[in-house]
Amino acid sequence: MHLSFSNGFIALAACILTSLQAGATEVSPPDLDASFAVPVGWKYQMHLAPGRVGATLSPVHDANEANVARCRIDRHELPAHFRSYTQAQLNSAYASKPLTREDFAARLTQQAGVPVRVLEVGEAKLGSSLAYWALSQSSEQKGSTTAHYMSKTYLSQTPGFAWNVQCLTAATTGAAEAATLFRSSTSTFEPFLASVRPHALK
User: Fold this and answer.
1) Do residues 47 and 55 make contact, with C-beta atoms less than 8 angstroms apart?
2) To 5 degrees, how large is the angle CA 95–CA 100–CA 104?
3) Whole-prediction pTM value?
């Protein structure tokens, strides 16, 4: 399921911005060891589980509960020996084997628990770390309702941590509606994705 973290997550904090007209606000939650810009009219909530820290972002108010937009940052702790690598070494290793559509489809399908169709892939940066991204679509049956998703997911690695950064739309009214909402949310999603900056290992 795309929209939620694991059930073991514990909500630690929520921040609803009061000066919504002031523009996106950069925050640096200490548990996450990263900074990011909260879009205008959005809030964020921190989550913590063993070996995993995350932040979920959503509009303060959903205009339509059947069709929603969400973003998230998920940081997974890697085995201790991964802390011995420099960012330059990790970037070089990442660059030597770019993630293909097939790679992303396999990873995202495993993560989501439903088949994921990858439409496009590319390369970007999260701060100084090399990242690969995928634009994808999927659907999930929930009782008599089908939820349709469209998402853009960034995967990257820093010394000691793996990062999954994602923005998505979900619609119970059809795949076309999920795609339309995604396109209209690009002006929110892209600045957020570009703002994510993992901090250097302490």
Assistant:
1) yes
2) 110
3) 0.87
Three-state SS annotation for 32-51: CCEEEEECCCEEEEEEEECC
User: Which residues, other chains included, contact 174 with Cβ-Cβ below 8 Å and sequence gap of 6+?
Assistant: 148
Inter-CA distances, 168 with 1, 30, 44, 50, Å: 12, 25, 15, 25
Average per-residue pLDDT in the chain?
A: 88
| Confidence tier at 65 by pLDDT (50, 70, 90) | confident
Q: Is 195 within 8 Å of 189 (Cβ atoms)?
A: no
**Which is nearest to 154 in space by CA: 113, 189, 117?**
189
Structure tokens at 108: 């995202």
Contacts of 180 (CB under 8 A, 6+ apart): none
Q: Which tokens belong to 168? A: 């998505």
Q: Is the torsion defined by CA of 110, 112, 117, 118 positive or negative?
A: negative
Whether 186 and 37 have beta carbons less than 8 Å apart is answered as: no
Give dist(CA 75, CA 66) in Å, integer: 28
